[in-house]
Amino acid sequence: xxxxxxxxxxxxxxxxxxxxxxCNILVFGLVFLMLRLPYQFSLTxxxxxxxxxxxxxxxxxxxxxxxxxxxxxxxxxxxxxxxxLAIPVLLATFRYQSHIAVMAVIYIMVCxxxxxxxxxxxxxxxxxxxxxxxxxxxxxxTTVKLGISPWFGLLVAIILCSVAGxxxxxxxxxxxxxxxxLVTMALQLAFTQLIKNIPYIGGPNGxxxxxxxxxxxxxxxxxxxxxxxxxxxxxFYLIFCILMLALLYYIAVRISISRYGLVLNNIAxxxxxxxxxxxxxxxxxxxxxxxxxIFCGIGGALYASLTSFVGPNxxxxxxxxxxxxxxxxxxxxxxxxxxxxxxLLTVITEKLRDFSxxxxxxxxxxLVIILIVRPSGLIPKRVRNYCAIFGRExxxxxxxxxxxxxxxx
Length: 409
Fold this sequence. Notes:
By secondary structure, the protein is an all-alpha fold. It has helices at residues 3-36, 39-59, 61-71, 73-90, 95-120, 128-145, 150-169, 178-196, 235-256, 259-269, 271-276, 281-307, 317-330, 335-351, 359-373, 386-389, 397-400, and strands at 207-208, 214-215, 218-219, 225-226, 229-230, 309-310.
């Protein structure tokens, strides 16, 4: 390689890095505007973003963006985290907008868990709100009834949701398709009725006074004043939730590109073929329910710590349908799509609080429109490019062609 070619290569890499950071700044700038603007302008911007995503997908620009991010995955991830942490700073004094941001982050966590089942393994789970409720009630009982630290409550939520994921996953091992959906639907309805009839956890009245997460004597959910500026009580809690989301998203990515993700996709394509190939289908189905339940439980625990109250109405079948709509809207088995779908639908929901009586109608219309216009979601799943992801190159042509053995007879 000559010096000229080397300098051109370096210039191309530098321009790609600048473009990667610029894309992240643009994306999170749009996120900030959707959170900050009044609902008329915010919903208009949401509609424009959806139209832009559909156009980029049709024109092939979305594939170019994904390739750009994969080639510069380290810079893309680090700059994205910096941009995400800039959102709480920009919303430092805006209480309502900060609340929407926290809710969006929590719902994204839950939807990442649902995606393991619906997206990766093609198991339609109608009970994500039940897993979220288990995590929320674990946090509530631990802090309110037992008076223990909320950090221990978060750990209890993870453990109980793991057990619940295994127990609920067991009845579904020999079911698939519509039967699997009916089983999870029955479990969701049973969970709602169960928590309504247990007086120890508040029954239909729920539990109030759930403690917020704290570090020492520093509460993460409290309004503080710095340099004469009163911060929203969500400021530090939003930062913590963003860091937790970054961790869960990294885990989801690693699972998706690992052998487990490939096997779950194999089960989704053809369960019988996977079984013939020696895949322990029942074990991987249990894994999908287990990891999905943990993600939902963490979201539920953080939700309880945020609202300081949990009740049966927060974890109904209708809430499960909302999470399913978020995953379908964004794009099943595409983690970026799940993130986008959960955020957009959360913004739509929170910005239309004045029309909450028509919330179910709005969800139904969105779901019908997406299934007709874009059944694969706003950002459909991609074929894994392991060579680009892990920075490996294909063998040269001379190494790929194996010479045929000569006939010595």
